[in-house]
Design brief:
single chain; alpha/beta; Rossmann fold; L-2-Hydroxyisocaproate Dehydrogenase, Chain A, domain 2; 2 domains; six-stranded parallel sheet; three-stranded antiparallel sheet; 9 helices; 14 strands; 21% strand; globular; binds adenosine-5-diphosphoribose
């Protein structure tokens, strides 16, 4: 049976564990630095299994040794973005946490595939790859599935159609410089530009780019977790079931999209060994320009921190 560990038992971590448990994808370990928090939530989630009907074993722990031999480790540890705070503001605190988490993953679960969720995603994923010392394909981040989910939801609302029919694609950085791709977004196979006028699409693209911030402003404290945990679980399923799913992920680029040595969102094929292939799409000139700016801003942050 597969073993999945979730580091960080906050909103995103615990909701991810709930969704994983309901799918009975494998045994689960949930860890956190706060004593009692993962243990309490694990108990609650196991008791839910008696009512919902799942037998998943869930261990709450403050001890990294419990993640030993995990097949998949999902990292949500960190502080969440507060209103008015940019993802970049989070960088110093969260990268310190991630270095510690990564060293423990390398020590106890050296064969695992690692999904990073902690923001600022593109930077933190790089920090995790460096500090685990793992092959680049085994460490990737969750952003595009979430951003594409947001774009799809806004499109469905606009067209008054089922969300289930919309397949959206969003690449680039996770933040202001993400690149939603209307030309690769379809509704039951029908290209989005055939269904909506350009100005409406631009409005939905803008709302997608601000999707995380819109929720942060409403919540007043903390950030989104229902859609993020859903996105994590779709990636976890691809790894555990080795399904070769094609979806956007924050992956390490080695020349693709004209980028070398950084992580950002691109379509990939995801399977048991992690990112098994990066798919290169043809983009419009202005989309390439945003990607270039995206990578520039990521590199600028790198130059300011020690990785
Ligand atoms: N090891 C393990 N857990 C840690 C550590 C650490 N070194 N440092 C902090 N944590 C835990 C916190 O105790 C907290 O329970 O991480 C958890 C984070 O949970 P929340 O504050 O509820 O944040 P959440 O909404 O889950 O977001 C987590 O995901 O989407 C991103 O931007 C978001 O970076 C943030 C992360």
């Amino acid at each position: 049976m597969a073993k999945i560990s979730v580091i960080g038992a906050g909103n995103v971590g615990a909701t991810t564990v709930q969704r994983l448990a309901e799918l009975e994808l494998g045994e689960i370990v949930m860890t956190d630095v706060v004593e009692g928090l993962p243990q309490g939530k694990a108990l609650d989630l196991m008791q839910a299994g008696a009512i919902k009907g799942y037998d998943t074993s869930i261990l709450g722990s403050n001890d990294y040794s419990d993640i030993a031999d995990s097949d998949l480790v999902i990292v949500t540890a960190g502080i969440a973005r507060k209103p008015g705070m940019s993802r970049e503001d989070l960088i110093k605190t969260n990268s310190k946490i991630i270095v510690e988490v990564s060293q423990n993953i390398a020590k106890y679960a050296p064969e695992s595939v690692v999904v990073i969720v902690t923001n600022p995603l593109d930077i933190i994923t790089y920090v995790a790859m460096k500090s685990t010392g793992f092959e680049t394909k085994k460490v990737f981040g969750m952003s595009g599935v979430l951003d594409a989910g947001r774009f799809a939801s806004f499109i469905a609302e606009e067209l008054k159609c089922s969300r289930k029919n919309v397949q959206a694609m969003v690449i680039g950085g996770h933040g202001d410089l993400m690149v939603p791709l209307p030309q690769y977004t379809t509704v039951s196979g029908i290209p989005l530009p055939d269904l909506l006028p350009e100005d409406t699409i631009s409005r939905l693209v803008e709302r997608t780019i601000n999707g995380g911030a819109e929720i942060v402003e409403l919540l007043k404290q903390g950030s989104a977790f229902y859609a993020p945990s859903s996105a994590i679980v779709s990636m976890a399923e691809a790894v555990i079931k080795d399904s070769k799913s094609v979806l956007p992920a924050c992956a390490y680029l080695e020349g693709q999209y004209g980028q070398e040595g950084i992580y950002f969102g691109v379509p990939v094929k995801l399977g048991a060994s992690g990112v098994e292939e990066i798919l290169e799409l043809k983009l419009d000139q202005d989309q390439y320009e945003v990607l270039r700016k995206s990578s520039e801003s990521i590199r600028k942050i790198f130059s300011q921190i020690e990785v």
